[in-house]
């Protein structure tokens, strides 16, 4: 990676000890993705990162992303169904962290493919994503809608 990336507050990269965590993938990814796959996804040398949303010592969500030539692709975003914490921001914090990562690496676009569910598409739209084309059928996942968001450079001299 061109620049080191430090996870923002409330997030962290996986640790070896995380293999013992109680984490159940939730939502549309349940049964399609395992926690082991989330952990194994983290290969910084290959441009693939797993980022956890944490509250204290508890892991409440995970995001997996890949760095491309001009973009960063969010491959997976999930809550931890095993977590007892409710009413806290998980997805929005992790998507914001992915955007910070993209900006820190000089990438111009954040991309993802969302399950073709009206509530989920609306959630991503409320975070600045727009559809990039019609839904397509992905084996093992069903209809997915490609979406993107332009990454705005950070202006720290406000």
- What's the order of the H and E elements? EHEEEHEHEEE
Beta-strand segment tally: 8
CATH T-level fold name: Aminopeptidase
- How much of the sequence lies in strands comes to 25-35%
What is the name of the CATH class? Alpha Beta
The CATH homologous superfamily is termed Gcn5-related N-acetyltransferase (GNAT)
Largest sheet: 8 strands, mixed
End-to-end separation in angstroms reads 28 Å
Describe the structure in your own words.
- A hairpin with a 3-residue loop joins strand 7 (136-138) and strand 8.
- This protein has one domain (11-150): Aminopeptidase, CATH 3.40.630.30.
- The longest helix has 14 residues, at 91-104.
- Strands 1, 2, 3, 4, 5, 6, 7 and 8 form an eight-stranded mixed β-sheet that branches.
- The protein is built from three helices and eight strands.
- It is globular and about 40 Å long.
- It is α+β, with helices and mostly antiparallel strands and 158 residues long.
